[in-house]
């Protein structure tokens, strides 16, 4: 055993250890509790698909089954033209580029709320599918997280005319 070998091994071991530390730290911290916005990002969806104000969510990482909870029905508009609505609890399954079996997400089409069943990422678009039709929105519409809007009253009062 020459001492020259030992000297070369030590820096190598030190480099390996620091590489392992650098690489494992972010993984560990994001495993601890990714936010719902990080879950979207991991699945190739923009964070703006979910408005601000989520109170909690559950995710089964094996099946992708999730549910998201707001304190009240959340409505917001895209580009001041398209209206979306999330029930206080909505759920479905998430996988890479696909949200399926959705329950509790609606888009307003000619004054009628229609439930969205699936949202699929198709290159730079998001395709929202309903039972007999679909909407295609550019992903840029979802760059920023929208705010839930108040319908007449915020807070205590029941939103009236909730359809
Ligand atoms: C939702 O309600 C819970 C319990 O009333 C409260 O602690 C929490 O701050 C609320 N969250 C938001 C985003 O308003
Ligand atoms: C995830 O779902 C599977 C299948 O329904 C179930 O067996 C498992 O217990 C669930 N895991 C968690 C953490 O709930």
UniProtKB/TrEMBL annotation:
Family annotation (InterPro entries): At5g01610-like, DUF538
Cleavable signal peptide: 1-27
Coiled coil, from the record: none
Pfam family membership, one: DUF538
Keywords: Signal
Protein name: Uncharacterized protein
Biological source species: Vitis vinifera
């Amino acid at each position: 055993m020459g001492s020259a070998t030992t000297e070369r091994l030590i820096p190598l071991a030190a480099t390996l250890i620091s590489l392992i530390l650098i690489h494992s730290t972010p993984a560990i911290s994001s495993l601890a509790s990714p936010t719902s916005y990080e879950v979207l990002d991991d699945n190739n969806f923009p964070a703006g698909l979910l408005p601000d104000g989520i109170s909690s969510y559950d995710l089964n990482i094996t099946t992708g089954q999730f549910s998201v909870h707001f304190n009240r029905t959340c409505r917001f508009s895209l580009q001041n033209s398209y209206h979306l609505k999330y029930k206080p609890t909505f759920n479905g399954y998430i996988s890479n580029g696909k949200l399926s079996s959705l329950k509790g997400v609606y888009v307003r089409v000619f004054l009628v709320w229609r439930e969205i069943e699936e949202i699929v990422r198709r290159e730079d678009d998001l395709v929202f599918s309903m039972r007999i039709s679909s909407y295609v929105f550019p992903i840029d519409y979802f760059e920023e997280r929208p705010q839930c809007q108040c319908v007449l009253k915020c807070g205590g009062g029941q939103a009236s005319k909730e359809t």
